[in-house]
């Protein structure tokens, strides 16, 4: 069986309306899925605008993926007003946990990076 992996090139926009339970209200979530390739680094902040939440996903089968997390978090925080850069909510997500035989980044290593950057930490497979 072949597994196909589709990498984001540039920026993909996702939009989802989410109903708030037990209310008549809903929120609209806009997600900008940005490529992790350095080729797009300079143009991405124009697409991001001022993010309200930061979700950074890295690949647990690639140490390089985790090593690049900090530079992307710094770049995203530069889009924020200076007084908000350390206050904004964020999550670091270790992806591809189902590939346990290829895993090279331990949960502890991911957790340490998240703590250093002031992010919550989760793992899973999407």
From TrEMBL:
* Protein family according to the UniProt entry: Belongs to the small GTPase superfamily. Rab family.
According to UniProt, the name of this protein is Uncharacterized protein
Q: What Gene3D superfamilies would the database entry show?
A: P-loop containing nucleotide triphosphate hydrolases
Write out the entry's keywords from A to Z. Answer: Nucleotide-binding
Q: Which organism is it from?
A: Timema genevievae (Walking stick)
SMART domains named among the record's database cross-references: RAB
GO terms assigned for molecular function: GTP binding; GTPase activity
């Amino acid at each position: 069986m072949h597994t196909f992996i589709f990498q984001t090139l540039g920026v993909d926009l996702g939009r989802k309306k989410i109903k708030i339970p037990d209310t008549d209200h809903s929120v609209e979530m806009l997600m900008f899925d940005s490529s992790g390739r350095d080729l797009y680094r300079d143009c991405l902040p124009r697409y991001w605008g001022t993010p309200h939440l930061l979700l950074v996903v890295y690949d647990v089968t690639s140490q390089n993926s985790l090593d690049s997390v900090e530079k992307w978090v710094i770049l995203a925080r530069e889009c924020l007003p200076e007084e908000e850069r350390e206050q904004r909510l964020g999550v670091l997500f270790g992806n591809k946990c189902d590939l346990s035989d290829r895993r090279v980044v331990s949960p502890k290593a991911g957790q340490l990076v998240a703590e250093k950057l002031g992010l919550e930490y989760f793992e899973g497979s999407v």
